[in-house]
Each structure stands twice: as C-alpha cells, then as structure tokens.
Design brief:
This protein has 272 residues and is α/β, with parallel strands linked by helices. The protein has helices at 4-9, 29-43, 58-68, 86-97, 105-121, 138-147, 167-172, 178-181, 195-208, 218-228, 232-248, 256-266, and strands at 48-52, 74-79, 125-130, 159-164, 186-190.
C-alpha cells in the first residue's frame, strides 16, 4: 500500500530508502574521488583502509566500488560481522567463499590460503572487504597480516579493504598492529557531506522517484544539512520525516519549520 505522503508529493516510491541498485548510487565529487582511489588501489592489488563517522557513506561507497570492479578479474567477498574471534572469523570467510569447513583455525586458514593461490592461477585477484572493522577482535587483527603474506611476502595475491569508524586507524597505529598497517598502502578518510552535496543529494533522491520540482525550500535544505551534520543516514531519516509532516499540514513545500519539527520529533529522549 502506497504511503499517503508519497501520493501527496507525487512520488513513485520512498525517495530516501535503501533499495537502490549499485548503478543508481550517487556520490558527491569528494566521495567519488575516494571511490576512485579505492578502485585504483584494488586494481594495483593493494590493501585499503577507509575510516569515517557513522552515516558518512562508507558502505555506499563500497557498493560503488563493487559496481566498478571487473567481476572477471577480481573476486570481492564482503564480510560484515566483525565481532567474531579468529576461528569464527575464518569460518565466516569460508562460508562466504563456499569452502569446506575445518575444525581448527589452522585448517580454516589453510583452506582460505589455498583458495587464494588457486584464484591466482586463474588470474583472479581476491578482495576481502571487512565492514565495521573497528570491531575486529584483537586476535583477528593479530593474524590478518599473515593472511596477506604469500610467496615469502613477494606477491600481493590478496587485497583487504578495511572499513570502520575513526577508532580503527587508532587501533592499527598501536605497536602490535604495525605489521598489518604497514601492508595497507592506501589510507583514506570519508567526511560528511558539504552543504552543496546535501542539496544535490536530496534533489537526486527525489528525482529518482519522479519529482521534477523543488520540494524543499533553500532554508529547509540548509537546516537539514545543519541538523544532520552532512551525514547521509540522518539526511534520509530527517528528510522522510519532514516530507510526512509537511504533507499532513497540506503544505506545497517543505519549509524550515517542518525540518525543525522532524528533528525535535526524532531526537533521542536525553537530547538537550
């Protein structure tokens, strides 16, 4: 059943939902440049570290990278459960790679290493993308640099893409993790959207649902950017709430006061 606010604004679907195909994803120029660097690093068979605050578009960017990476020359494996110990982490990788399970961590590691070498014979470069990597157990971090070590550390047969909050860089900078950090050549930080990025992002999402006119006033967009601090996840949430509130008030446009109400309505109980 179509939500009433969608028909009020003449939208064909929820403009700020997650249901987007990879090829439809939008990145502002600053984030597009970061995606370019990640793709180039993977093509050069290097490992990558990407950090940023929640909601800044890290996962969105990895989907863009997936879309732009040749499926015939590279094999991307996505792992999002970073809270596992070393053995269960390797079990998760084996499941994602459709490899047989071994009882011990050593057996699991051997299965993954052998798979990586087999792909190299087929001229396919594997890429393991570890999301929420700031949550990785220390015993897993202790072992990741060994996973990158092939042919006496002579050949880069595997690339890692580690995605996480800024804490991840701090953890990798610790002395015990220097062996892993030294193998990560590309280190990138994703920041929040700029005001003009927020405006373009909102217009793009609305246009995708058939809207060919401005629904938010310039003041409303400016306040939306300020309230969300340029974080895409918060923009989606607040913009949706503002559209609902404005439609109930029979407004022709979403104005600043509707965005303010959306912020107040969606604020956590302990917010000032």
């Amino acid at each position: 059943m179509t939500a009433s606010y969608l028909s009020a604004w003449g939208l064909s679907g929820p403009p700020f939902d997650k249901d987007l195909d990879d090829k439809e994803l939008w990145l502002p120029p600053t984030k597009a440049a970061i995606a370019d660097e990640v793709v180039e690093s993977v093509q050069d068979r290097q490992s990558v570290l990407v950090t940023g605050e929640p909601g800044t578009g890290k996962t969105c960017m990895t989907r863009v990278v997936r879309h732009r990476t040749s499926q015939s020359a590279f094999r991307l494996t996505y792992c999002h459960n970073a809270t596992l110990g070393r053995r269960d982490f390797y079990r998760q990788l084996c499941l994602a790679l459709n490899l047989p399970m071994a009882a011990s961590a050593a057996g699991l590691f051997y299965a993954i290493s052998s798979h990586v070498k087999d792909l190299e014979k087929e001229r396919i470069h594997p890429v393991f993308l570890l999301d929420e990597a700031h949550l990785l157990h220390q015993d897993t971090l202790d072992h990741l640099h060994i996973l990158l070590n092939y042919e006496w550390d002579q050949k880069p047969l595997l690339s890692l893409i580690l995605m996480g909050l800024p804490d991840l860089h701090d953890r990798l900078s610790l002395r015990r993790n220097r062996s892993l950090l030294s193998r990560i050549h590309t280190r990138l930080t994703i920041g929040p959207l700029l005001p003009e990025d927020t405006f373009a992002y909102v217009r793009m999402r609305l246009a995708r649902c058939g809207c060919d006119r401005e629904l938010f006033t310039s003041d409303a967009l400016a306040f939306l950017h300020e309230a969300s601090q340029g974080q895409m996840r918060d923009i989606d949430r607040l913009a949706t709430a503002a559209l609902r509130l404005a439609s109930r008030s029979k407004r022709r446009l979403v104005e600043r006061d509707q965005v303010l109400r959306a912020v107040q309505t969606n604020a956590p109980p302990d917010a000032a």
